[in-house]
Amino acid sequence: MAAGPQYAVTHGRVLTRGREAPEETGMSQLLNRIGGPSCRRDLSASIVLFLIAIPLSLGIALATGAPLQAGLVSAAVGGLVAGLLGGAPLQVSGGATGLVVVTAELVQRYGWRATCAITVLAGVAQVALGALRVARAALAISPAIVHGMLAGIGVVIAIGQLHVVLGDSPDSSVIDNIAALPKELRHPHPAALLVGAITVGVLALWPRLPGKAGRAARAVPAALVAVAAATAVSAGMSLPRVDLPSWKSPALPGIPEGPVLGVVAAVVTVTLVASMESLLSAVAVDRLRTAESGPWTDGWGAARTDGGEAARAGGREAARTDGRGAAPERRPVRLDRELAGQGAANVVSGLLGGLPIAGGAMRGSANVRAGAVTRRSTMLHGVWVALCAGLLAGVLELIPLAALAALVMVVGVKMVSFAHIKNVQRNREFPVYAATLGAVVLLGVLQGVAVGIAVAALTALRRLTHTRITLAEEAGLHRVRVSGQLTFLAVPRLSRALAQLPAGSSVVVELGGWFMDHAAYDALQSWAEGHRARGGWVRLGGRSGRPIAEPASAHACRPWTPWRNHHCTRPAPAAVRDGGGQLLGGVSAFQRHTAPLVREELARLAREGQRPTQLFLTCADSRLVTSMITSSGPGDLFTVRNVGNLVPPPGSDASCDSVGAALEYAVEVLKVGSITVCGHSGCGAMQALLGSAVPAPAGGPKPPMAQTPLARWLRHGRPSLARMERIGRLGRGEVALGDRPVADELERLALVNVVQQLDHLMAHGCVARRVAEGELVLQGMYFHVGEAQAYVLEPGGSGRFSAVRPDHGAAGAAGAGGPAAGSGGVTAPVGSGGAAGAGGGSLPGWPGSLDLMR
Questions:
Q1: Per-position b or e across 427-448, b if 16+ CB within 10 A of its CB
Q2: What are residue 212's phi and psi, to 5 degrees?
Q3: What family does the Swiss-Prot or TrEMBL record give for this protein (predicted)?
Q4: Is the pTM of this model over 0.85?
Q5: Phi, psi of 547 (to 5 degrees)
Q6: Can 683 be counted among the known catalytic residues?
Q7: Is 653 tagged catalytic?
Q8: pLDDT for the residue numbered 768
Q9: 466 tagged catalytic
Q10: How confident is the model at residue 367 (pLDDT cuts 50, 70, 90)?
Q11: For residue 169, what is the DSSP state?
Q12: Which entry of 215, 496, 592, 623 is annotated as an active-site residue?
């Protein structure tokens, strides 16, 4: 089942997240019949958006100097047109806060009708850019530039609207506004200041109301409460208030008068700022929607629901339908469609006399948190704004302008986000952010963005080319520190610095950057080889002190890749004929790549000695790579390998003391805590044993086996063969695999052999004593080579081998169990070792190693 809330409509009840909600009647049932449960949630969210949009739209229009009804037009058009055509269903569009400064300048320079024409042209440009599918290219601009631009716009808005709160009107220049502030602060308008203070206070305190009552009250938007409270307090005061002229057919946009380049620059500025604000907002709203884990829709009620038909279909994933049977497809935000939809909304808004439109993250986040499911919430909020503008104009005209100015001032302050400042500072891009912010405040939006791009380019170039090299001598050790990126541009300075080091000296080269090209690597390696040849000692290390390796190439051979598939260790044809070229190539690759990584760990093991916790006895078959299948590293396993993973009983053959000696050393000296016997599929020793079991001639003995070293060794496997013959080759017998039948007699013998060798282990006195003392555990294991699947013998003498699964890192498949006598049922719980957490199922006690060998 997909994550997120699930809904089902069954006999008039809504089932949410598996719980049954109270039976619904009346309007809720009607909405559910029309559009499903999503319709009711969209209606609720649209009312919240409407209550936010009214004061915010009027405030933005006031800040730009445009007619106040232009803000209502942009809110209605943004909801209806952008909501219908956009590619981000939960994005909410309206008058652009990021364009307040630009629009105010355009109104003062060209007039309102010409500003509407510029809005139309910018909309056409956005539609064209959407058709060209360049929306994602806008996201390539550094976030420091975008956030710096928005912060600069917020500063300009806040300073300008502060004048309105103090009872004056702002100037066109932010410098003039800053210069006039001391005078305004000395002589404010008391009533306007009171109204503004009440508005700001409610905006600050309303989201922090405590308790259940506060949580219920916060369902009403803070902006609406603040403006309503300020309006109520200002009743009877002489203050400028909203003035909405009677609605009439809008005048057509006028052609801007002035230089063509100035008009083009204005269109480009509106297009750039509106597009970036809308696209970044769409991405932010989509991330918030994903975090909220609500049901996703395609914008027309195609919400994921648990319909009765799906339940009757046998428990399949919930049916995904809308009220009209449409099946949605889970898609990311379509940015090109969103850009084109924003352009269409700007065209309509400009033609109807509205402000430039852009999507807003604040309104979009409110839409998501209000529970919106489809684009219907955005469109309905546009309908409510249009109805309010036509029917409730008298109520809106009671709002004092100081309250709207205070609201927009707070919005401007919030555009300077300290979270964004911390983020750009963490990424060392604060100079770009600060330059963009300052240039927007002092020069304008377009000029500020250009300055930000230039500073970002210079910063990136400096980081790439600026390299600092210092030399220091500490107690006879020469230390070369390289700060910054090491490229071919720094090679001459690096060579001069290295040439100053005396021959035969001990040198540590510390690289503090994150990038080194091949020219610098070759220069560094050539000098190091020459310095070592003259009797010197060199260590090359990165920022963390770890040795450096050659820059990555297109091909990366992995340690478990067979030699024949290696490219980095393949020898010359002449070297292949002598049989040792490939081995030397592999050793050379180890010295190049792996030795620098494991040298420190191996040095520790050399000082402290080996302390393995496991004895791992397995076959000498070349396909069994013990470190790979156990996720172990240096010092983890004491390994014994022989043909057939056999354990000769003590005293059986004087020539077979090597296994007994290894057992004694591991148990008595190393004090290992467990011994594992591991068989495998396709074992040649087991095949040889099966081939030796030929029937005896009638009335005569079996022919003797040839007395070769291999034949003499395989005599220790005859007890396993006899054990299998006793239980019957074709019967289930006393061995089995947990997830499938035993494939054939060869696999059955390999499993029986593991059990038999565990019995042989118990015949050794040192092993039996440690097991009896509870200090040693014996384990059986089987590895299927073709399936890369490990099986572990269950405890209790059942003879059942359970498959080790990737999720066995926390709880063992075999369960708890101590040593048990009998038919090899001496096992331990699976998956208690640390290696399982890193790489999946493993045997107990195998610690998570450094994985430096892989």
A1: eebbebbbbbbbbbbeebbbeb
A2: -65, -40
A3: Belongs to the beta-class carbonic anhydrase family.
A4: no
A5: -60, 150
A6: yes
A7: no
A8: 92
A9: no
A10: confident
A11: -
A12: 623
